[in-house]
Amino acid sequence: MTLKEFAKILKLSPTTVSRALMGYSDVSPKTRQRVLRMAEHYKYTPNTTAARLKRGKADVVGLFLPSQPGAFEDPFFLKLIAGIGEQLAERENDLLLLAPTEKQKEIALLEKMVRSNQVDGVILARPTVLDARVEFLIDHNFPFVCHGRTQGTRPYAYLDIDGKSAFHEACLRLVHFGHRRIAFLNAKPNMRFALDRFAGYKQALEEAGIPFDINLVLEGQMNESFGREASQSLMQQAVPPTAFLCATDRIAIGALRGIQLLGLQAGTDISIIGYDDLPMSSHCTPPLTTLHQLIPEAGKRMTEMLFALIDGHPIEGLQEIWQATLIKRESDGPVTTR
Amino acid sequence: MTLKEFAKILKLSPTTVSRALMGYSDVSPKTRQRVLRMAEHYKYTPNTTAARLKRGKADVVGLFLPSQPGAFEDPFFLKLIAGIGEQLAERENDLLLLAPTEKQKEIALLEKMVRSNQVDGVILARPTVLDARVEFLIDHNFPFVCHGRTQGTRPYAYLDIDGKSAFHEACLRLVHFGHRRIAFLNAKPNMRFALDRFAGYKQALEEAGIPFDINLVLEGQMNESFGREASQSLMQQAVPPTAFLCATDRIAIGALRGIQLLGLQAGTDISIIGYDDLPMSSHCTPPLTTLHQLIPEAGKRMTEMLFALIDGHPIEGLQEIWQATLIKRESDGPVTTR
DNA sequence: CTGTTAGCGCTTTCAG
DNA sequence: CTGAAAGCGCTAACAG
Questions:
Q1: Does residue A217 sit in the same domain as residue A269?
Q2: CA pair distance A61, A123, nearest whole angstrom
Q3: Residue of A218, A262, B232, B267 with fewest CB within 10 Å of its CB?
Q4: Is residue A330 a part of any domain in this protein?
Q5: Residue B329 falls in which region: left (phi positive, over 0), alpha (psi -120 to 50) or beta
Q6: Distance separating alpha carbons of residues A268 and A285, to the nearest angstrom
Q7: Would you place residue B112 in the very low, low, confident or very high pLDDT band (cuts 50, 70, 90)?
Q8: Which nucleotides of D are covered by protein (CB under 7 A)?
Q9: Judgement on whether residues A98 and A240 belong to the same structural domain of the protein
Q10: pLDDT band, residue A99 (cuts 50/70/90)
Q11: Is A75 an 8 Å CB contact of chain B?
Q12: Quick one: pLDDT at residue B293?
């Protein structure tokens, strides 16, 4: 049913019906009541496409998904979506997924979005050190919010987790347990967050007066295989580490497995700390000490920030850094003397 | 830039430009070349909203997300999205996420979609035994494909995994290992797949001549806590089970943890089999024997099926059942005599 | 092969 | 407070 038809039934002009539906004040309460009631009854909903064309706004927000297939294996994006969705509903906006593929490259996809008015703004996550998407969106002055910072200098709206503080705290915890040979299993340094986490680790070592040993740092994929292999290889050193600080829980779980295969026990023989607090992490053996971040809440807040941007607010004030929380469980503890 | 402006630059009519861009045959190759080249140069992309309004098609597909927050903790939907996205790109369609919230209920959301022409079709997953969404979409004759079947009788397009065969095979494996007291940790029976999996388990027992014991079946949330508690409680029985068949890997991982806490070892003392083949599952201790399904491939195929439906194909032929694959690892083995 | 014309269904000035 | 009229930017008959 179209507005015209519906208006005819009510013996009103399309104009009045439209205004009543949009909750404008310049329509008598009685008429509005009737329109609302009848819309319910006849199940009339305005055609979104037409409204969008007229208003020049899509009422749709895009979420950029990672292009690496492996990235689909952690719940980060789904949790983020849960938060985004909640906030989106407040303004009756929708969420469009931007999934780059082999054919549809990242920038081509964004270009299409920016040019075709399909979305009013975009949410990104996990930027690289110099993220092409971020640069593109700044260049085109298109509203977007990023979960995480890049190395670029131009300002943009972001919500980031303070990875440096998080790993500083985690590393200090290991230091206080008496560890002095603390390995760091990091993500590849093209990810900005990897740099932050590394900085926290290094600073903690410095504060504790522990000399930094490059041989204790390994970088790889953020998955269990890397964790397992890296932990096993480090344990072969003449003076092996007594603790593993891992950039993600998946790496940590791999490390857990790695040292288990060497006949060692995490929590007593070796300490391990991760980051992400995956659902699994509290249920492995032993339960993993890890860092927890508020993902749905971040999604919600980022959406709010994006709406602000879309409404014309300046970027100032739309840059937030949140803290992660250390969740103490059983995969770490005092260093054991042998 | 609008089509009119762009056409003016080229000294052509909007019509010709539009047709050239859409690749219609009734435009001279020379003109088409020029239009395409100039569009590239001036970075002109047609306004999607306007095109949609005109054509009466959204070129958008909706994906219904689960409303229970807990459901966000497994990678199923993200993997599905990966497959859907790939196929969507083939037709330049987009993916709209339908995330029901407290305020925006499932059916209200669907109603809006059906009425507002925002999406041409919908993809659902994990239906309940009598799924309200499925019923609604059938009632309204709206194109949709569901990952899984319901208990309803009216036909609709689906792609389902043969959970019965999968659990039949898994249970038979345990039987061949000599197990006779095989526990089944299932999801709640309002989920259709839970019924299928249970049927497979029960049939295998029957074929093996093992009497069904209701006390060996527990139903609960599909998470680790349920697995841990259920396994521990069952181990307290006078004659405890020697094997656990679990409806999901998360339940299995919980069971793994549960029996570990009782001082028993999975794979030797007790056998455990899960379903999902989560990334984690090959990295726990011991690596989990489980059932693997092709999720991205299913997403891709479902999207194809949805396009067929949107293009007017009948439902016949758009109902597929795929098999899961048993991944043999180390969490199960021959029953041990004590 | 190309251009003219008429809407798609809605929102929003502008009058009344 | 309500209605008439003018498009938003595009596509598709229909002529030429």
A1: yes
A2: 8
A3: A262
A4: no
A5: beta
A6: 12
A7: confident
A8: 1-5, 7-13
A9: no
A10: confident
A11: yes
A12: 96
Which nucleotide has the shortest C1'-to-CA distance from B2?
D9
Same-domain pairing of B285 and B202: yes
Segment B284-293 shows an average pLDDT of 96
Q: Mean per-residue pLDDT for A150-165?
A: 96
Look up the pTM and report it. Answer: 0.90
Q: At what angle do helices B14-22 and B29-42 cross, to 10 degrees?
A: 90
Distance from CA of A279 to the nearest CA of B (A): 7
Beta bridge partners of A122: A62, A144
Q: In this structure, what CATH number is given to the domain that contains residue B70?
A: 3.40.50.2300
| Residues B19-61 pLDDT 10s | 999 888 788 888 889 999 999 899 888 988 899 899 888 889 9
Same domain? B98 vs B186: no
Q: Who among residues 46-65 of B has its Cβ near strand D, under 7 Å?
A: 46-47, 50-51, 53-55
- Residue B70 has a pLDDT of 67
Give the CATH number, domain containing residue A22: 1.10.260.40
Domain presence at residue A328: no
Q: Which of B23, B38, B55 is the last residue of a domain?
A: B55
Mean pLDDT computed over every residue of chain B: 92
Rounded to a whole number, what is the distance in Å from the CA of A180 to chain B's nearest CA? 28
Nucleotide nearest to A3 (CA to C1'): C9
**Is any Cβ of chain A less than 8 angstroms from the Cβ of B325?**
no
Mean pLDDT comparison of A41-50, B43-52, B205-214, highest-scoring range: B205-214
Predicted local distance difference test score (pLDDT) of residue A70:
67
Give helix then strand counts, H and E, for chain A.
12, 12
Statement to judge: residues B113 and B262 lie in one domain: no
- CA pair distance B134, A140, nearest whole angstrom: 42
Residue B178 has pLDDT above 90, yes or no: yes
| Three-state SS sequence of A254-278 | HHHHHHHHCCCCECCCEEEECCCCC
User: HEC states along chain B?
Assistant: CCHHHHHHHHCCCHHHHHHHHHCCCCCCHHHHHHHHHHHHHHCCCCCHHHHHHHHCCCCEEEEECCCCHHHHHCCHHHHHHHHHHHHHHHCCCEEEEECCCCCCCHHHHHHHHHHHCCCCEEEEECCECCCHHHHHHHHCCCCEEEECCCCCCCCCEEEEECHHHHHHHHHHHHHHCCCCCEEEEEECCCEHHHHHHHHHHHHHHHHHCCCCCHHHEEEECCCHHHHHHHHHHHHCCCCCCCEEEECCHHHHHHHHHHHHHCCCCECCCEEEECCCCCHHHHCCCCCCEEEECCHHHHHHHHHHHHHHHHCCCCCCCCEEEECCEEECCCCCCCCCCC
Say yes or no: Cβ of A9 under 7 A from any atom of strand C. no
Partner B, chain A 295-314, Cβ-Cβ below 8 Å: 296
Q: Are residues A190 and A261 in the same domain?
A: yes
Span of A210-219, A266-275, A319-328, B99-108 with lowest mean pLDDT:
B99-108
Amino acid identity at B11: K
Mean of the per-residue pLDDT values for chain A?
93
> How far, in Å, are A97, A135, A165, A298, B65 from residue A87 at the CA level?
16, 26, 28, 11, 15
Q: Is residue B221 part of a domain?
A: yes
Cβ within 7 Å of strand D: which of A 249-308? none
> Does A285 share its domain with A244?
yes
The domain containing residue A39 runs over which residues?
3-55
Rounded mean pLDDT, B303-310: 95
Total structural domains in chain A?
A: 3
In this complex, the nucleotide whose C1' atom is nearest to the CA atom of residue A13 is D3
Nearest to B280 among A86, A95, A253 (CB): A253
The reply to whether B328 falls in a domain is no
